[in-house]
Specification:
Layout (H helix, E strand, L loop, with lengths): L6 H19 L13 H12 L5 E5 L5 H13 L3 E5 L2 H13 L6 E5 L12 E6 L6 H8 L3 E9 L6 H13 L3 E6 L5 E6 L1
The chain binds S-adenosylmethionine (SAM).
């Protein structure tokens, strides 16, 4: 997967990494920043998604599509589609540009709108990456966990750098008998929940 990333995908990843670095350095307002995952986290997500059972692959919080490109590597390999949700039109516009430039439109379906309006309709979820505003994590967690197939994974970003805000969700997941959960100290901290 990592040894054969197509040039169009690599090029777009590099463009987004550069924009993200500039955003953080030059004080771009929070809502305009891409706020994307680290490359190491991207590899971690791709590895987890690649080993997930049969079922839907989801992402909540697309931004410009950087993490989606990593998850798309696993989807291409497995012959699946990634459904990724983005609420802000400006970010959805950037993401569309990303998926076109990286030539992954065949495997990535961008859904523009609040993910919470759509999660009621998803079924048989094999893998879900949650990376939206921290205030909606609890609601998204409760919507996705019952939809996970056995062995399905929910991975949530910012478990360490936003630990205080996310503590109620983290406590809920770690005590939730429907899943085995662990916080992995990679990138900004990934909460990994596997449906038992
Ligand atoms: C941290 S950024 C996502 C970064 C992206 N996952 C990456 O690593 O490339 C969070 C994104 O989630 C979007 N978002 C926040 N709440 C959302 C919701 N309820 N439904 C869909 N998207 C949401 C924001 O507009 C923002 O673009």
């Amino acid at each position: 997967m990592f040894h054969s990333i197509r040039p169009a995908i690599l090029a777009r990843m590099q463009v987004l990494e550069q924009i993200d670095r500039q955003d953080r350095a030059n004080g771009t307002p929070r809502l305009q920043r891409l706020r994307q995952i680290t490359p190491e986290t991207g590899k971690f997500l791709a590895l987890l998604a690649a080993g997930s059972p049969e079922g839907m692959v989801l992402e909540i919080g697309t931004s410009a599509g950087y993490s989606a490109l990593w998850i798309a590597l696993a989807c291409e390999m497995l012959g699946r589609t990634l459904h990724t949700f983005e609420v802000l039109p400006e970010k959805a516009h950037l993401a569309r540009e990303t998926f076109r430039a990286a030539q992954v439109e065949r495997v990535v379906k961008l859904v523009e709108g609040d993910a919470r309006d759509h999660l009621g309709q998803v079924e048989q979820v094999a893998f879900c990456f949650l990376d939206a505003e921290k205030e909606v994590y609890g609601e998204c967690y409760e919507a996705v966990i019952p939809k996970l197939v056995k062995g399905g994974l929910l991975v949530a970003d910012n478990a360490l750098n936003h630990r205080q805000t996310l503590q109620p969700v983290l406590d809920r997941a770690l005590a939730d008998e429907r899943v085995d959960a662990l916080i992995v100290p990679i990138g900004k901290g990934e909460l990994v929940c596997r449906r038992v």
